[in-house]
Amino acid sequence: MRLERAILVVLDGCGVGAAPDAADYGDTGENTPNTLGHLAEAVGGLNLPCLQALGLGNILPLRGVPPADAPRAHYGKVQPHSKGKDSVTGHWEMMGVHTETPFPTYPDGFPPEVIRAFEARIGRETLGNYPASGTEIIKQLGMEHLRTGKPIVYTSADSVFQIAAHEAVIPLEALYRMCAIARELLQPPHHVQRVIARPFVGDSPDTFRRTENRRDFPLPPPENLIDALHARGIGVYGIGVVPELFVYRGFRHAERTQSNAEHYDALLRALQSDCAFIFANFEDFDMLYGHRNDPAGFARALNEFDAMLGELLTRLRPTDLLILTADHGNDPTTPSTDHSREYLPLLIYSPSNARGRDLGVRRTLADIGATVGALWGVRAPNGEPIEL
Protein backbone atom coordinates (compact mmCIF):
# COMPACT_ATOMS: atom_id res chain seq x y z
CA MET A 1 0.00 0.00 0.00
CA ARG A 2 1.37 3.43 -0.96
CA LEU A 3 1.75 5.82 1.95
CA GLU A 4 0.33 9.26 1.25
CA ARG A 5 0.76 11.34 4.41
CA ALA A 6 3.47 11.69 7.08
CA ILE A 7 3.00 12.93 10.65
CA LEU A 8 6.23 13.70 12.52
CA VAL A 9 5.80 14.27 16.27
CA VAL A 10 8.77 15.45 18.35
CA LEU A 11 8.70 14.65 22.07
CA ASP A 12 10.88 17.57 23.08
CA GLY A 13 13.67 16.57 25.48
CA CYS A 14 12.87 12.84 25.62
CA GLY A 15 16.34 11.32 25.21
CA VAL A 16 17.10 7.64 25.74
CA GLY A 17 20.67 7.54 27.03
CA ALA A 18 24.02 9.30 26.73
CA ALA A 19 25.33 9.58 23.17
CA PRO A 20 28.95 8.51 22.51
CA ASP A 21 30.03 12.18 22.37
CA ALA A 22 28.16 13.24 25.52
CA ALA A 23 31.46 14.13 27.24
CA ASP A 24 32.09 16.77 24.57
CA TYR A 25 29.00 18.54 25.88
CA GLY A 26 29.82 18.24 29.57
CA ASP A 27 27.30 15.43 30.10
CA THR A 28 29.44 13.16 32.26
CA GLY A 29 29.71 12.14 35.90
CA GLU A 30 26.63 13.09 37.89
CA ASN A 31 25.26 14.77 34.76
CA THR A 32 25.45 11.61 32.62
CA PRO A 33 21.98 11.57 31.09
CA ASN A 34 19.33 9.00 30.32
CA THR A 35 16.18 11.08 30.33
CA LEU A 36 13.49 8.43 30.00
CA GLY A 37 15.43 5.67 31.77
CA HIS A 38 16.34 7.78 34.80
CA LEU A 39 12.86 9.30 34.88
CA ALA A 40 11.21 5.88 35.04
CA GLU A 41 13.40 4.89 37.97
CA ALA A 42 12.84 8.19 39.79
CA VAL A 43 9.04 7.86 39.75
CA GLY A 44 8.92 4.13 40.46
CA GLY A 45 7.96 3.16 36.92
CA LEU A 46 6.03 4.68 34.04
CA ASN A 47 2.62 3.60 32.78
CA LEU A 48 2.51 4.25 29.03
CA PRO A 49 0.36 1.51 27.44
CA CYS A 50 0.18 3.03 23.97
CA LEU A 51 3.91 3.81 23.69
CA GLN A 52 4.64 0.39 25.18
CA ALA A 53 2.54 -1.30 22.49
CA LEU A 54 4.37 0.63 19.78
CA GLY A 55 7.73 -0.55 21.14
CA LEU A 56 9.16 2.18 23.35
CA GLY A 57 10.28 -0.44 25.88
CA ASN A 58 12.07 -2.29 23.09
CA ILE A 59 14.39 0.71 22.61
CA LEU A 60 15.79 0.84 26.15
CA PRO A 61 15.17 -0.72 29.58
CA LEU A 62 12.30 1.32 30.96
CA ARG A 63 10.80 0.53 34.34
CA GLY A 64 7.05 0.00 33.97
CA VAL A 65 7.25 -0.16 30.15
CA PRO A 66 8.41 -3.69 29.23
CA PRO A 67 9.37 -4.68 25.69
CA ALA A 68 6.39 -5.54 23.50
CA ASP A 69 6.30 -9.12 22.27
CA ALA A 70 4.93 -7.90 18.92
CA PRO A 71 5.63 -4.15 18.71
CA ARG A 72 3.22 -2.29 16.45
CA ALA A 73 5.90 0.14 15.23
CA HIS A 74 9.39 -0.12 13.86
CA TYR A 75 11.65 0.90 16.73
CA GLY A 76 15.21 2.05 17.26
CA LYS A 77 17.24 5.05 18.30
CA VAL A 78 19.16 7.84 16.62
CA GLN A 79 22.62 9.18 17.37
CA PRO A 80 22.45 12.90 16.54
CA HIS A 81 25.07 14.15 14.12
CA SER A 82 24.90 17.96 14.38
CA LYS A 83 27.15 19.93 16.71
CA GLY A 84 24.64 21.05 19.30
CA LYS A 85 22.08 19.71 21.75
CA ASP A 86 19.17 22.07 21.22
CA SER A 87 15.86 22.32 19.43
CA VAL A 88 17.13 24.23 16.41
CA THR A 89 19.95 21.85 15.46
CA GLY A 90 17.73 18.85 16.24
CA HIS A 91 14.79 19.95 14.11
CA TRP A 92 17.02 21.22 11.31
CA GLU A 93 18.82 17.87 11.26
CA MET A 94 15.50 16.05 10.91
CA MET A 95 14.94 18.05 7.73
CA GLY A 96 18.39 17.25 6.36
CA VAL A 97 20.58 20.06 7.72
CA HIS A 98 23.82 19.02 9.41
CA THR A 99 25.23 21.76 11.63
CA GLU A 100 28.96 21.07 11.48
CA THR A 101 30.19 24.18 13.31
CA PRO A 102 28.68 24.89 16.74
CA PHE A 103 26.88 28.18 17.19
CA PRO A 104 28.48 30.52 19.76
CA THR A 105 27.65 30.13 23.44
CA TYR A 106 28.38 32.52 26.30
CA PRO A 107 29.19 30.81 29.62
CA ASP A 108 30.42 34.16 30.99
CA GLY A 109 27.63 36.28 29.53
CA PHE A 110 27.69 38.40 26.39
CA PRO A 111 30.66 40.70 25.78
CA PRO A 112 30.26 44.40 26.62
CA GLU A 113 30.15 45.48 22.97
CA VAL A 114 27.11 43.27 22.36
CA ILE A 115 25.20 44.51 25.40
CA ARG A 116 26.12 48.17 24.79
CA ALA A 117 24.91 48.00 21.20
CA PHE A 118 21.65 46.34 22.28
CA GLU A 119 21.02 48.90 25.04
CA ALA A 120 21.69 51.77 22.63
CA ARG A 121 19.14 50.42 20.16
CA ILE A 122 16.37 49.80 22.71
CA GLY A 123 17.04 53.02 24.64
CA ARG A 124 17.40 51.51 28.10
CA GLU A 125 19.85 49.56 30.23
CA THR A 126 19.53 45.83 30.91
CA LEU A 127 19.81 43.53 33.91
CA GLY A 128 21.50 40.14 34.23
CA ASN A 129 23.71 39.11 31.32
CA TYR A 130 24.74 35.73 32.71
CA PRO A 131 23.76 32.08 32.20
CA ALA A 132 20.76 31.09 34.31
CA SER A 133 17.61 29.06 34.58
CA GLY A 134 14.76 31.15 33.26
CA THR A 135 12.60 30.59 36.32
CA GLU A 136 15.46 31.38 38.70
CA ILE A 137 16.60 34.58 37.05
CA ILE A 138 13.17 36.18 37.29
CA LYS A 139 13.14 35.31 40.97
CA GLN A 140 16.57 36.92 41.34
CA LEU A 141 16.00 40.03 39.25
CA GLY A 142 12.24 40.33 38.82
CA MET A 143 11.72 42.89 41.58
CA GLU A 144 14.50 45.14 40.26
CA HIS A 145 12.97 44.81 36.81
CA LEU A 146 9.59 45.95 38.18
CA ARG A 147 11.27 48.93 39.85
CA THR A 148 13.49 50.03 36.97
CA GLY A 149 11.81 48.77 33.80
CA LYS A 150 15.12 47.31 32.62
CA PRO A 151 14.69 44.07 30.62
CA ILE A 152 16.48 40.96 31.90
CA VAL A 153 19.01 39.49 29.46
CA TYR A 154 20.38 36.00 30.05
CA THR A 155 21.66 32.93 28.27
CA SER A 156 22.17 29.21 28.97
CA ALA A 157 24.37 26.34 27.81
CA ASP A 158 22.64 26.72 24.43
CA SER A 159 23.30 29.39 21.82
CA VAL A 160 20.53 31.74 22.98
CA PHE A 161 19.99 35.42 23.81
CA GLN A 162 16.93 35.48 26.07
CA ILE A 163 15.01 38.57 27.14
CA ALA A 164 12.65 38.32 30.11
CA ALA A 165 10.18 41.09 30.87
CA HIS A 166 7.01 41.47 32.93
CA GLU A 167 4.01 41.85 30.64
CA ALA A 168 2.76 44.87 32.64
CA VAL A 169 6.17 46.61 32.47
CA ILE A 170 7.18 45.90 28.87
CA PRO A 171 4.12 44.99 26.77
CA LEU A 172 4.42 41.95 24.54
CA GLU A 173 4.76 43.84 21.27
CA ALA A 174 7.53 45.99 22.76
CA LEU A 175 9.32 42.86 24.00
CA TYR A 176 9.02 41.25 20.59
CA ARG A 177 10.47 44.41 18.99
CA MET A 178 13.44 44.19 21.37
CA CYS A 179 13.97 40.59 20.29
CA ALA A 180 13.81 41.57 16.63
CA ILE A 181 16.46 44.24 17.31
CA ALA A 182 18.67 41.69 19.08
CA ARG A 183 18.23 39.27 16.16
CA GLU A 184 19.36 42.01 13.75
CA LEU A 185 22.39 42.90 15.90
CA LEU A 186 23.61 39.38 16.60
CA GLN A 187 25.67 38.78 13.50
CA PRO A 188 28.93 36.77 13.17
CA PRO A 189 30.88 36.14 15.29
CA HIS A 190 27.97 36.59 17.73
CA HIS A 191 25.36 34.85 15.57
CA VAL A 192 23.49 33.10 18.37
CA GLN A 193 21.08 30.50 17.15
CA ARG A 194 17.98 31.91 18.83
CA VAL A 195 16.74 35.09 20.41
CA ILE A 196 13.84 34.23 22.72
CA ALA A 197 11.19 36.47 24.29
CA ARG A 198 10.42 35.26 27.83
CA PRO A 199 7.46 37.25 29.21
CA PHE A 200 6.30 36.72 32.79
CA VAL A 201 3.68 37.92 35.26
CA GLY A 202 3.34 38.10 39.06
CA ASP A 203 4.15 40.61 41.78
CA SER A 204 6.85 38.88 43.87
CA PRO A 205 9.53 36.19 43.56
CA ASP A 206 7.04 33.69 44.96
CA THR A 207 4.38 34.49 42.35
CA PHE A 208 6.45 35.26 39.25
CA ARG A 209 5.68 32.81 36.46
CA ARG A 210 6.50 32.72 32.78
CA THR A 211 3.52 32.97 30.45
CA GLU A 212 2.78 31.09 27.25
CA ASN A 213 3.54 34.18 25.12
CA ARG A 214 7.09 33.08 24.42
CA ARG A 215 8.32 33.81 20.92
CA ASP A 216 11.48 32.55 19.19
CA PHE A 217 13.61 34.47 16.68
CA PRO A 218 16.04 31.92 15.20
CA LEU A 219 18.54 32.23 12.40
CA PRO A 220 17.07 31.19 9.05
CA PRO A 221 17.93 27.59 8.16
CA PRO A 222 19.77 26.45 5.05
CA GLU A 223 17.70 24.87 2.29
CA ASN A 224 16.02 21.75 3.64
CA LEU A 225 13.28 19.19 3.08
CA ILE A 226 10.47 21.65 3.88
CA ASP A 227 11.67 23.93 1.09
CA ALA A 228 11.86 21.00 -1.31
CA LEU A 229 8.34 19.82 -0.45
CA HIS A 230 7.01 23.35 -0.83
CA ALA A 231 8.63 23.64 -4.25
CA ARG A 232 6.83 20.46 -5.29
CA GLY A 233 3.46 21.80 -4.09
CA ILE A 234 3.26 19.39 -1.15
CA GLY A 235 1.56 21.05 1.79
CA VAL A 236 3.41 21.24 5.12
CA TYR A 237 1.56 21.94 8.38
CA GLY A 238 3.74 23.18 11.27
CA ILE A 239 2.63 23.02 14.90
CA GLY A 240 4.12 24.51 18.07
CA VAL A 241 7.65 25.90 17.87
CA VAL A 242 8.31 24.13 14.56
CA PRO A 243 7.31 26.98 12.20
CA GLU A 244 9.43 29.46 14.18
CA LEU A 245 12.49 27.23 14.01
CA PHE A 246 12.22 27.38 10.22
CA VAL A 247 11.26 31.11 10.19
CA TYR A 248 7.84 30.08 8.80
CA ARG A 249 9.41 29.31 5.43
CA GLY A 250 7.70 26.71 3.27
CA PHE A 251 4.65 26.06 5.46
CA ARG A 252 1.16 26.05 3.98
CA HIS A 253 -0.32 26.24 7.48
CA ALA A 254 1.37 27.13 10.78
CA GLU A 255 -0.04 27.18 14.30
CA ARG A 256 2.15 28.60 17.10
CA THR A 257 0.48 26.64 19.87
CA GLN A 258 1.99 26.86 23.37
CA SER A 259 1.22 23.67 25.33
CA ASN A 260 0.90 19.94 24.72
CA ALA A 261 -2.89 20.15 24.92
CA GLU A 262 -2.89 22.95 22.34
CA HIS A 263 -0.42 21.07 20.14
CA TYR A 264 -2.69 18.03 20.15
CA ASP A 265 -5.79 20.04 19.24
CA ALA A 266 -3.83 21.60 16.37
CA LEU A 267 -2.68 18.14 15.28
CA LEU A 268 -6.30 17.00 15.03
CA ARG A 269 -7.08 20.06 12.92
CA ALA A 270 -4.07 19.32 10.73
CA LEU A 271 -5.43 15.85 10.04
CA GLN A 272 -8.46 17.53 8.44
CA SER A 273 -6.31 19.80 6.28
CA ASP A 274 -5.00 19.39 2.75
CA CYS A 275 -1.40 19.02 3.98
CA ALA A 276 0.50 15.80 3.32
CA PHE A 277 3.27 16.45 5.87
CA ILE A 278 2.41 17.41 9.46
CA PHE A 279 5.34 18.41 11.70
CA ALA A 280 4.57 18.97 15.39
CA ASN A 281 6.63 19.60 18.52
CA PHE A 282 5.30 18.71 21.98
CA GLU A 283 7.47 20.87 24.27
CA ASP A 284 6.02 20.56 27.78
CA PHE A 285 8.34 17.67 28.71
CA ASP A 286 11.37 19.89 28.14
CA MET A 287 10.13 23.38 28.91
CA LEU A 288 8.04 22.74 32.01
CA TYR A 289 9.72 19.72 33.59
CA GLY A 290 13.17 18.90 32.22
CA HIS A 291 14.55 22.40 32.73
CA ARG A 292 12.99 22.51 36.20
CA ASN A 293 14.25 19.09 37.35
CA ASP A 294 10.69 17.87 37.95
CA PRO A 295 10.50 14.09 37.33
CA ALA A 296 6.93 13.81 38.65
CA GLY A 297 5.69 16.51 36.29
CA PHE A 298 7.63 14.99 33.39
CA ALA A 299 6.06 11.57 34.06
CA ARG A 300 2.59 13.11 34.30
CA ALA A 301 3.07 14.85 30.94
CA LEU A 302 4.11 11.53 29.38
CA ASN A 303 0.96 9.88 30.76
CA GLU A 304 -1.15 12.63 29.22
CA PHE A 305 0.67 12.35 25.90
CA ASP A 306 0.19 8.57 25.86
CA ALA A 307 -3.57 9.05 26.18
CA MET A 308 -3.51 11.58 23.32
CA LEU A 309 -1.46 9.18 21.23
CA GLY A 310 -3.97 6.41 21.80
CA GLU A 311 -6.73 8.59 20.39
CA LEU A 312 -4.53 9.81 17.53
CA LEU A 313 -3.87 6.25 16.36
CA THR A 314 -7.61 5.67 15.92
CA ARG A 315 -7.78 8.67 13.58
CA LEU A 316 -5.00 7.60 11.21
CA ARG A 317 -5.70 6.42 7.70
CA PRO A 318 -4.19 3.15 6.44
CA THR A 319 -2.01 5.30 4.16
CA ASP A 320 -0.61 7.42 7.01
CA LEU A 321 2.92 7.22 8.39
CA LEU A 322 3.47 8.36 12.00
CA ILE A 323 7.01 9.04 13.23
CA LEU A 324 7.82 9.73 16.90
CA THR A 325 11.24 11.00 17.95
CA ALA A 326 12.99 13.70 20.04
CA ASP A 327 15.32 16.61 19.32
CA HIS A 328 17.67 16.25 22.34
CA GLY A 329 17.53 15.07 25.94
CA ASN A 330 16.73 16.93 29.15
CA ASP A 331 17.20 14.61 32.12
CA PRO A 332 15.20 15.94 35.09
CA THR A 333 17.08 13.73 37.56
CA THR A 334 20.59 15.18 37.10
CA PRO A 335 21.86 18.37 38.77
CA SER A 336 21.98 20.09 35.37
CA THR A 337 18.95 22.03 34.13
CA ASP A 338 20.28 22.16 30.56
CA HIS A 339 19.64 19.99 27.53
CA SER A 340 21.61 16.74 27.36
CA ARG A 341 23.45 15.01 24.52
CA GLU A 342 21.62 11.71 24.10
CA TYR A 343 20.47 9.05 21.73
CA LEU A 344 16.93 9.82 20.61
CA PRO A 345 14.00 7.41 20.36
CA LEU A 346 12.55 6.44 17.01
CA LEU A 347 9.14 4.83 16.50
CA ILE A 348 7.68 4.53 13.00
CA TYR A 349 4.09 3.31 12.66
CA SER A 350 1.46 2.92 9.99
CA PRO A 351 -1.93 1.23 10.35
CA SER A 352 -0.89 -0.81 7.32
CA ASN A 353 2.11 -2.26 9.24
CA ALA A 354 1.79 -5.95 10.01
CA ARG A 355 4.44 -5.83 12.73
CA GLY A 356 7.32 -3.62 13.74
CA ARG A 357 10.99 -4.49 13.49
CA ASP A 358 14.24 -3.37 15.09
CA LEU A 359 15.81 -0.43 13.22
CA GLY A 360 18.98 -0.49 15.31
CA VAL A 361 20.89 2.79 15.65
CA ARG A 362 20.53 5.41 12.93
CA ARG A 363 23.50 7.76 12.63
CA THR A 364 21.59 10.96 11.92
CA LEU A 365 18.15 12.46 12.38
CA ALA A 366 18.34 13.35 8.68
CA ASP A 367 17.23 9.76 7.99
CA ILE A 368 13.79 10.87 9.19
CA GLY A 369 13.57 13.63 6.60
CA ALA A 370 14.88 11.27 3.93
CA THR A 371 12.14 8.78 4.84
CA VAL A 372 9.44 11.46 4.66
CA GLY A 373 10.75 12.84 1.37
CA ALA A 374 10.88 9.39 -0.17
CA LEU A 375 7.08 9.17 0.01
CA TRP A 376 6.99 11.71 -2.85
CA GLY A 377 10.33 11.03 -4.47
CA VAL A 378 11.87 14.14 -2.89
CA ARG A 379 15.51 13.85 -1.90
CA ALA A 380 16.45 15.16 1.56
CA PRO A 381 20.15 15.94 2.07
CA ASN A 382 22.44 14.05 4.47
CA GLY A 383 20.09 11.17 5.18
CA GLU A 384 19.11 7.73 3.92
CA PRO A 385 15.46 6.63 3.78
CA ILE A 386 14.50 4.00 6.32
CA GLU A 387 13.13 0.84 4.80
CA LEU A 388 9.49 0.54 5.86
Structure in words:
- This protein has 388 residues and is α/β, with parallel strands linked by helices.
- It has two domains: 253 residues, Alkaline Phosphatase, subunit A (3-Layer(aba) Sandwich), CATH 3.40.720.10; 107 residues, Phosphopentomutase (Alpha-Beta Plaits).
- It is built from 13 helices and 14 strands.
- An eight-stranded mixed β-sheet has the order 10-9-11-1-12-13-2-14, with helices on both faces. Strands 3, 4, 5, 6, 7 and 8 form a six-stranded mixed β-sheet that branches.
- Helix 6 links the parallel strand 3 and strand 4.
- Helix 10 runs parallel beside helix 12 and helix 11 runs antiparallel to helix 12.
- The longest helix is centred in the last third of the chain and has 21 residues.
- It starts with a strand and ends in a 14-residue tail after the last helix.
- The model has no long low-confidence stretch (mean pLDDT 96).
Give the strand tally.
14
CATH architectural type of the largest domain: 3-Layer(aba) Sandwich
Estimated helix fraction: 25-40%
Task: Specify the biggest β-sheet.
Answer: 8 strands, mixed
What series of H and E elements makes up the topology? EHHHEHHEHEEHEEEHEHEHEHHEEEH
CATH topology of the largest domain: Alkaline Phosphatase, subunit A
| Shape annotation | globular
Query: What topology, given as strand order, has the largest sheet?
Result: 10-9-11-1-12-13-2-14
Rounded mean pLDDT is 96
CATH superfamily annotation of the largest domain: Alkaline Phosphatase, subunit A
Beta-sheet strand percentage? Answer: 15-25%
**Could you say which structural class the secondary elements and strand pairing correspond to?**
alpha/beta
Low-confidence stretches: none
Gyration radius from CA atoms, angstroms: 20 Å
Number of domains: 2
Q: Gap between N and C termini, in Å? A: 11 Å
What top-tier CATH class of the largest domain fits best? Alpha Beta
**Helix segment tally:** 13
